[in-house]
Write a structure and sequence with these properties.
Keywords: Membrane, Transmembrane, Transmembrane helix
Order of helices and strands: HHHHH
Number of helices: 5
Mean pLDDT: 85
Number of strands: 0
Structural class: mainly alpha
Largest sheet: none
Distance between the termini: 47 Å
Strand content: under 5%
Protein name: DUF4199 domain-containing protein
Number of domains: 1
Length: 151
């Protein structure tokens, strides 16, 4: 499993999200909800890498690539959320979390660490489903389009 392309690209997602979060933390921007949208770009980048590598190896089957890219996303998201749980506890738990969660729509109020992270997990997985479908539509159209002949 740890040598699979889904795991490797899931780790690319985790590293990307972790670095992005730490940069936002250093800049004091972790409370800006709209900046979290960039996390989706990072997740889709990892999923797209998996699909691209599958297509390069001749695996163009729609459902296999959909599941492969989704597995990549889930690995990246689960590891990222687990790391966030550890990080939040290291930084002081709920008082630290209150700074992050002011604009968090999913749970509202003052969420506990577990509530916040479960919300992030569901948010990440739901957006991954949509993102993987969109990526597969892109790749499906790209592969099936006839290439123009130059005479």
């Amino acid at each position: 499993m740890f040598k699979s392309r889904e795991f490797k690209n899931g780790m690319v997602i985790f590293i990307g999200i972790a670095l992005y979060f730490l940069i936002m933390e250093l800049l004091g921007l972790t409370d800006k909800l709209y900046l979290r949208l960039f996390n989706a770009v990072i997740v889709l980048y990892g999923a797209n890498r998996t699909i691209k590598e599958n297509f390069r190896d001749g695996n163009t089957e729609y459902l296999n690539n959909m599941l492969s890219s989704f597995k990549t996303c889930v690995i990246g998201i689960v590891v990222s959320v687990a790391a966030l749980i550890v990080y939040v506890h290291i930084r002081g738990g709920e008082p630290y979390l209150a700074r992050l969660s002011d604009g968090f729509l999913f749970v509202g109020g003052k969420p506990k660490v577990n509530e916040y992270c479960i919300g992030l997990l569901f948010e990440g997985i739901a957006s991954s489903v949509v993102g993987c479908i969109l990526l597969m539509q892109y790749w499906h159209g790209k592969v099936l389009k006839p290439r123009p002949h130059h005479h």
